[in-house]
Design brief:
Layout (H helix, E strand, L loop, with lengths): L1 H8 L5 H31 L5 H14 L18 H5 L1
Amino acid sequence: MQPTTIVETAPPPVRCTAVALGYNISLGVIGGLTPLVATWLVNRTGEEIAPAFMIMAAAAVTFMTLWFRETYRTPFIGGSSGTAAAYA
């Protein structure tokens, strides 16, 4: 579902660049900082399960993506409806 959401929110003229940059930069930053934040939370709170709150926050953000409007079967702006049939 995540790749579909990313592709559908990007405008068609810059879709490939937006998806590539957005996905790779965010994954690198979030993936790189997650162990640091988890360690900081454990040191700050003294609780070993403190990183669970970080996971709960990530789940809340993921849950909010469910409010995006579904665009399945709607034509792309500037696209033609018979393009896929011509290549089949």
